[in-house]
Every structure is written in C-alpha cells, then in structure tokens.
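Lay summary

Proteins are chains of building blocks that fold into shapes. Our project writes down both the chain and a compact code for its shape. Here are two examples, one after the other.
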Amino acid sequence: MSVVNRASKHDGTVSAAVTVDLVIFTVRDASLRVLLIERGKPPFEGGLALPGGYVRVGEDLDQAALRELAEETGVDGRGLYLEQLRTFGAPERDPRGRTFTVAYLALGPDLPAPVAGTDAATAHWVPVETALASELAFDHLTILKEGLDRARSKLEYTTAAAAFCREPFTIADLRHIYEVIWGFPLDPSNFRRKVTKAADFVVPTGELSTPEIGRPAALYRRGAAALLFPPLPRSGDVDRDAYPSTVTA
C-alpha cells in the first residue's frame, strides 16, 4: 500500500484574489448607457473600465459590489435591480496576479450623474455603442458584452424592463425601454396587448398622465411578477438574425 506524502504533494492550488465588477445599465437621453470609470491607478491607469474592486475580508460578494459602486461612482446600488452575471477567471486577465472576478448586472431608471472616487479618476454614463468600440481594461469588454446579452435576454422572459421605469409609467414608456435595449421599433398595439395580458407584469394605477402634447394615457406601476408569462420574444417582432448576439463563440 503506497503512502502519499501530503507535505510534498502538488495539488495545483495557487494564491488568488477575488474581485467584483459591475455592468450597470440605464436609459438616458433615449439611449442605453453603461457606467464606466477612468482608472486612476495602475494597471491600465487612464484606461476605461467597469466599476469594481477587491472583496474585503469578512465581506460577502453583494456587500462588496454595493460598496465598490458607491466608492468609485457615488451611485447607491440598493435601489437597483442587481444579479450575479458569472465568474471570470482567465489566468492572464489581471497583470497583478491570479484574480477571479464575480461580475454583476445592474439595471436602473435614468440614474443620476456619477461622482468618481477612490481609484476612479472620472466616471461617466457612456453610450453602449461607444463602450463596445472602446478598449476596456482587463477583460471588461468581454464582461460588458455578456452583460448586454443577459439584459436583452432578460427582457424576453422576466419583468426586468420595469426596473428601468420610474413609477408611475405609461405603456409607451415601457415600450421605449424595450426599443432602446433591443435596438428596433415595436408595434405599439401588439406591445400593449402582450404587456397587459402578461400575468401581474404591470398594474394600472387608475390615473392618467397629463402630457403637454397628445392625449392622456393610463398610468401603471410594476406588478409582483418576476417572470414574464407569457414571454415576450424578440423574434415575434423582428428577424432575430438582424440583431445578433454580441457574444461570439
């Protein structure tokens, strides 16, 4: 019977750090924006990046994400729709050493201008098209693309689109969110029919909007449902091949 010398056994483990990074989307000036910072410290000093940083001892991942968001941008994430995207751990993703990052997706309605802090020199809401064409620090472009695909997909089968709307809102306000994020126009009548028939997606307040121009419209608030039933597939309104995924195989 052989005996394993555990003191000399190589089990493949290495010292590694854990960080969090946030893909935060909002709709401003009729366009989808993502929050980016200009890094104030090496590595990638002066480069654009997603907000984030190291997880502290005794801190869970959600706490770290909210803290880093507040410290680097001044944005309070407690009122945002927030979920984990996935973990990224390519060996060379961080020149400082082996680092695993847990990426978060956050959605919020017309969020305020960010205020840079800690190791962020500046912070801005950047149009998604501009961000996708930029060189981002670390592997943040890959994370951004996956976050964008997740956000677009979530609008098909969850009620996450309402997280972009300030209450109360009209059906036209909600349709605008879908159009901005998906990138194509939707038929108003079909959209209204699908949304109002979805179980507990939106709830009428019984009040009407008072626009300066045009007819008053019914106002709604978010319902209690988290999943959208029936779902609202993009393919029902447009050829999906004309609007491909940003993630390549």
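And here is the second example, written the same way.
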Amino acid sequence: MSHEKSFLVSGDGVPPQTPAFPGQQPPAPPAYTQPPYPAMPYAQPQFQPGPYNQPAFSQGPYPPAPGPYAQGPYPAGAPLHSNYHEEGPPSYYDNQDFPTTNWDDKSIRQAFIRKVFLVLTLQLSVTFAFVAIFTFVKGVRGFVRRNVWTYYISYAVFFISLIVLSCCGDFRRKHPWNLVALSILTVSLSYMVGMIASFYETEAVIMAVGITAAVCFTVVLFSLQTKYDFTSCRGVLVVCLVVLLIFSILCIFIRNRIMDIVYASLGALLFTCFLAVDTQMILGNKQLALSPEEYIFAALSLYTDIINIFLYILAIIGRAKE
C-alpha cells in the first residue's frame, strides 16, 4: 500500500486553495470593504487585507486575483513498505508476518536477540542443574526411579504450559505472566529430563551433554554466518516431524535396538534442523522472522529444540552401550 502526499505552493509562497478540476478556475478571493480614512496632508499608507499583508501606498482597487493554479499530475511520494506506517525503503529486518512492527532500527533486533539468549541461558542452567542432581545424588536418583508417577504429573504441567504459551499469543506478551508460565514450563520439563537421565549411566549422560553442547553451538554459529535461508524449509520439516511421530508409534510395538537407534538418530537430525530454522527466525534476516514482542516464544522454541536434541543423543548413546 502506498500513500501519496503532494503539496502545491504558488510562486509568492501562499498555500493554495482546494485544487480546481480541469477546465475550471479557482474561486476569486472574497471582496473586502475598505474603511474610510480621514483626509491627511500626506499619503496615508494602508494595509491591504488578505494573504499579502503588505502596505499599499496608493488608493485604488485591489490587485487582480492570482491566476489559475497549475494543474497536472501531482508528484507521488516515496512508496511505503507493507510493514510500515511511515515513508522509507524496506529495512533489512522486514517481516511480512508482523505488519505492525517497526523493523527499521537494527538496535531493536539486537536487543531482542540478547533478551532471547539470556532467557535461554537461564532455562538451560535450570534444566542441567536438575540433570546433575538426578544423576550424581544417589538419594534423589533412587527416589525418582521409585516414584514414576511424578513424571506423569510433570508431563501434564509441561503440556498445559506449552499449549498456553504456544496458542495464546496475547497471554505470552503480558508481563510478568508470560515469565511465570515460562518458569513453570521450564521447571516441569527440567524434572522430566532429569528423571529420564537418572535411568542412564552417568558416563552416558556426561557424553550426551557434551555432544549436545557441541552440536548446538555449531548449528547456531553456522546459522549466523550462512546465507542459505533455512526458514524456507520449515514446511518440509513439519512434514518430517509428522513422519517421525508415526515412526515412534511403530517403535512402541516393535521393540528393536537397531530401530531405536535409527529413530533417535532421525530425531536428533530433525531437531538440529529445527534449531537452525528457529535461530534464523530470531535473527530476522531471512524470509520468515519473529516479532521482537515474541521473545518468550523465541526462547521457548530454542529451548525445546535443544532439549529434544539432548534426549535423542542420550537415547543413541544409551542404546549403543547396551
């Protein structure tokens, strides 16, 4: 959508009246009544009413009305970008999905990225603190192994929190309730991950943490540097996720060590691709981008990608050691 602004000023600097239609002349200025002046031995200057506001030293009729205003096509203003309410060329950080967001300032995007990675760092710190406690503290490790029902409670809390943050856009933008919901989700998922890690050997957990950190760091660094647009592959990845879910149902009924390793490998690869897509959506320099108001959703996306990568790598190592 574009707006056209045109201003027409006559040669004497007077703003024009309403432009006339072709073939018509602008209306003449209204006739002014001149008050009588007393007789004076010298010429009395008088001020002419109207837009000129200049002294007239001679009596007589007013000057003729100004000529017709110039007609013709008015110059079109600078085109507006579809994502803006102001003039100017489209920014490098344009986003068609959020037309009310001003992306013209790179500092907004940089502040958004810092906020997302700060929240993500806090989430991962809490999660791997749970993993360390459930892995190295034998009393806690034995308790969670005996009380498996706590896993299902934490899963229900996590699922409800995930639905609220993912589907309720207005709620996840309301501070501080969005942080409260994200904290509940983080604690519940951290308990689930810690409980899963408690069923594996300590060596396997440490290896999985190290491999996950190396993979995630490499993917994020590659997404920052590459010119390839991973966001254009988002639809393909969603289809692959559906196929992976169907394959997981098949693995439930067919218990096989090789199938479990293949399934975990495909899952780790798929969520690695999701991590690259979500990273570029946060950067905002590709086809799809996230609004700077969605820092909670952005942190949640990266957090779930990294946790899934860790769980699948842990499953690969655990099944390979059996």
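What can we say about the second shape? Strands lie at 46-47, 55-56.
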